[in-house]
Inverse folding.
């Protein structure tokens, strides 16, 4: 067993609010410079830069979790990660179906770009990605699980777009594989006020939209020597000696 | 005014929690952010929202809200409905949007 430094919530140029410097190649270079060994690529309601990021990560010794940050009907943000490209593709089809068709106004919201490794634009996504899907928490959880994925409500401590802001508190029986906190609090401080959530493993991530914020906060995945999706799945479940260690 | 009066005067559909129809309504609060409702609503208010997750019942119960009014013909989730029946806090449903629903209730209560 060893610890892998991980920042599992990064936005690319595909998120309208993601800085134009956030190309998959820049994200991977920056992560490498910071000694990050595991990244999560999680654009708003879209997965289309994830495969490239994973491939570039692999070439640089970084394991990349492919996924998206979904906005549920309650407007709670949740990270969804998938192991295989087919599962990711099936989830993308689901996202396209559930996303409201609101034309993107690039002047107001920014660009939504799918790029290649040379940072050339392959596609500009037409519909605003920061809308809420027409699917509630349970429905998205069930869809993610039917595709063998992992569902992690994002930045639950925050006052916007979180379970806490939207639903008043994290439902004690929330269906989730783990929970995420932001840079603004420690797990210890959060659990002091929310002891009922201690059965969950917590990840802590930067939610970086700008290159200099990658790794602003992070956590460690404690797992077998070669990090894989299966190892992460065990770690987020706290099983077989694997777990997530947050920073204090 | 009771929840029953409110429902009858504004033609709101009683979805659940009918045993609480005699609860008194003294005012209202309109918001879809449950953290905001938790912080700012007051007891005996009716709460106008489009949220249907069962956490709305937990907050209504904690804050001693008189009733919940869902807008745009929304229906509560099954768990929400069940809890409304258990606690006797009625859920009503309006065919109108939050703006109109709030305006009508305000006019009735002021």
């Amino acid at each position: 067993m060893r610890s892998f430094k991980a920042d599992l919530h990064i936005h690319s140029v595909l998120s309208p609010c993601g800085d134009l410097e956030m190309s998959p190649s820049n994200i991977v270079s920056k992560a490498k410079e910071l000694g990050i060994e595991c990244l999560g690529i999680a654009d708003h309601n879209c997965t289309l830069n994830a495969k490239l990021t994973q491939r570039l990560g692999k070439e640089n010794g970084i394991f990349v979790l492919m996924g998206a940050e979904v906005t549920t009907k309650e407007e709670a943000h949740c990270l969804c990660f998938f192991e295989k490209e087919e599962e990711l593709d099936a989830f993308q089809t689901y996202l396209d179906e559930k996303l409201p068709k609101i034309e993107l106004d690039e002047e107001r919201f920014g660009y939504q770009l799918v790029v290649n490794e040379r940072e050339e634009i392959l596609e500009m996504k037409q519909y605003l990605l920061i809308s809420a899907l027409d699917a509630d928490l349970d429905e998205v959880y069930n869809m993610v699980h039917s595709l063998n994925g992992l569902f992690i409500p994002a930045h639950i401590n925050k006052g916007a777009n979180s379970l806490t802001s939207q639903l008043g508190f994290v439902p004690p029986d929330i269906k989730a594989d783990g929970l995420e906190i932001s840079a603004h609090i420690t797990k210890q401080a959060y659990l002091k006020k929310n002891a009922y959530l201690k059965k969950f493993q917590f990840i802590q991530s930067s939610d970086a939209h700008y290159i200099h914020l990658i790794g602003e906060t992070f956590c460690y995945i404690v797992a077998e020597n070669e990090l894989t999706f299966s190892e992460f799945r065990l770690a987020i479940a706290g099983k077989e000696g694997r777990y997530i260690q947050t920073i204090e | 005014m009771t929840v029953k009066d409110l429902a009858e005067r504004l033609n709101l559909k009683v979805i659940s929690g009918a045993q609480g129809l005699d609860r008194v309504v003294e005012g209202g609060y309109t918001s879809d952010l449950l953290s905001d409702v938790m912080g700012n609503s007051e007891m005996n208010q009716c709460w106008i929202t489009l949220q249907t997750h069962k956490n709305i019942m937990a907050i209504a119960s904690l804050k001693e809200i008189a009733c919940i009014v869902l807008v745009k013909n929304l229906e509560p989730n099954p768990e929400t409905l069940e809890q409304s029946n258990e606690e006797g806090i009625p859920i009503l449903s309006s065919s109108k949007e939050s703006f109109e629903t709030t305006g009508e209730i305000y006019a009735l209560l002021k």
